[in-house]
Amino acid sequence: MSAGEFDLAAANSEAKQRLVTSLRGKGAHLSFEDAVRDFPARLINTKPDHVPYTFWHQLEHIRIGQLDMLRYIADPHYVSPPWPAGYWPDHHATADESAWKKTIAAYYADLDELVALIEDPTCNVLAPVRHMEERSIMRSALVLIDHTAYHLGEFVMARQILGEWKSELS
């Protein structure tokens, strides 16, 4: 390959590495693990002032959004749930510690499946995918990274407001 030629295989490999790093919450993004670490069980069903959902609702929303994106990428016949109701638990639903842990475990299982799909040697994350309206897996993963980072930021901010987050700045 001469200087100035584009190396698609190298670009795909680097894109995959960067996507996996960001999906795992490394680099510039807060990790899911850090956001939920030492979360007080007594606050699982708390709705902070002026917030329409609980901490558990928010984690479920993150999990559902991730699962939706995983299925969208992996299954050409997948149909997304209706927006917005299909992406949130019922407004009145509550969780106990078991449901909280189940949400977290499901989030990690789906994340592992998505990472495995991206890391598959036959996967070209840069290529348009027919069943995804010619969008690339990279585009879909970036949407998911953005969505997760946004809601984890809200999650941590609410913890800070309630005095349940230890920050390096405090």
Tally of helical runs: 5
The biggest beta sheet reads:
2 strands, antiparallel
Approximate strand percentage: under 5%
Q: List unreliable stretches of 5+ residues.
A: none
Secondary structure elements and pairings:
Elements (H helix, E strand, L loop, with lengths): L7 H16 L8 H5 L18 H20 L22 H23 L8 E2 L5 E2 H25 L9
Antiparallel strand pairs: 1-2
Helix pairs in contact: 1-4, 1-5, 3-4, 3-5
What features would you describe in this structure?
There is one protein chain. With 170 residues, this protein is mainly α. It has one domain: Four Helix Bundle (Hemerythrin (Met), subunit A). The protein has 5 helices and 2 strands; from the N terminus they run ααααββα. It has a two-stranded antiparallel ribbon. Helix 1 packs antiparallel against helix 4 and helix 3 packs antiparallel against helix 5. The longest helix has 25 residues. The model has no long low-confidence stretch (mean pLDDT 94).
Short description:
This protein is mainly alpha-helical and 170 residues long.
